[in-house]
Structures are given as structure tokens and as C-alpha cells.
Amino acid sequence: MFNYIYGEITELVSGKVTVDVNGVGFELQVSENTLTECKLSQKIRLYTYMQVKEDGIALFGFASLEEKNMFLQLISVSGIGCKVALSVLSGMSIDKLVDAIVRGDAKQISKIKGLGNKTAERLVLELKEKIVAKFSPVALSTGQNLDLQTNKNVRDAVAVLCSLGKSQADAEMLVDAALKLGAISTEELVSMAFKIK
What does pTM read for this prediction? Predict the structure, then answer.
């Protein structure tokens, strides 16, 4: 129903932000990562997801479209609800999370508070294919000079960025720029791509 909310932050508490939009205060549940982007009296745009249940309605806010898209991927996993998804986003940066999923590193993900081994394994199993396999491999202009492993890392990094809301062209451009800055592994490429403006 709501794609985003734009207004002034009037309250900040752990896990929650209140945004005043023309005199109406919207309370949004947020990850710790989004909370660090928020400051009192700041005008901000938060991307939103509305959960409707029998016992009430909850609004979730995200500082970036990438975080919202990862949240949507997480809640698509059986057994992971909105609160657990926020815990995952609070416990690990998006680039580290997607790298762990791509590598199948459920052990790393299970270190997040409130997430057990079985849930972490299910998360990896259900999301790995969604994040990587649904995007076709791409050949970047620099690809001809790269070894096979680096080519795979480039394809995986582009796929990850696309799964988080970047267009194919933007993802390729960001990964290409990250390569030129010396990034090699999928994690480095994704991490550096997030830092490039």
C-alpha cells in the first residue's frame, strides 16, 4: 500500500522510528542499520512494508531500497517472519549477508542473535537460488582479461545487486568500477559497489 514515507523524525527508540507526515505520526519498526541513518528532526524518506495481521497492522521502514528488497527476500523464507527478518538485517550488513548466502555459509548467518542453525540453513537453501540463479550471466567489458573465478565473482556480484533492486546496467557499471578499484571476491565487489556513488 505504501512504497515510502517522507517526513520529519520526531521519536527514536531502539527498533522504532516515528515520522511526522503533515501532522500524522507514523511509527515504523526498523533495523539497527536503518536506525543509525536516522536523527531527530531530520527529514527522511523511509521505504516501507505494511504487515496486516488479525491482531493489528505494523509498518516497517528501511533506509534504502536494497534493505527493503532483502527484507522481502527474507520473509519469503518459510519460518522467517518480519521480526526475525529485522533481526537478521540488524545483525549483519547486507553485503556480508548476501555473500554468506551466495557462499552457502549458514554457520556465519546462524551467529545472528535469535537465529538458529536450522533457520540459517533454510534461509541459505531457499535464497541462494533466488539471489543468484534467476539473473542471467553478464559479460562486462573487462571480463575478457579476468580468470574464470573472477568472472564467476563478477556474475554473482551483478546478480546480487540486481536482486536488491539495482537495474542490470547500474549493477554492471558499479561492479565494473569496483573491479577497477581492486575488488576481486564477490563480497568485495558487492561491498565496494554499495560505497560507490
Answer: 0.70
Dihedral sign for Cα 13, 14, 16, 22, please.
positive
What is the rounded distance in angstroms from the CA atom of residue 23 to the CA atom of residue 169?
Answer: 40
Which residue type does 26 have? F
In a domain, 197, yes or no: no
Ramachandran assignment for 108, one of left (phi > 0), alpha (psi -120 to 50 degrees), beta (any other): alpha
What is the distance between the alpha carbons of residues 165 and 43, in angstroms, rounded to a whole number?
A: 23
Number of domains within the chain: 3
Please report where in the chains the cell 527529514 appears, as a residue: 43
pLDDT higher than 50, residue 196: yes
In the prediction, which pLDDT does 186 show? 84
Quote the domain boundaries for residue 149.
Answer: 143-192
Q: Which three cell numbers stand for residue 126?
A: 531457499
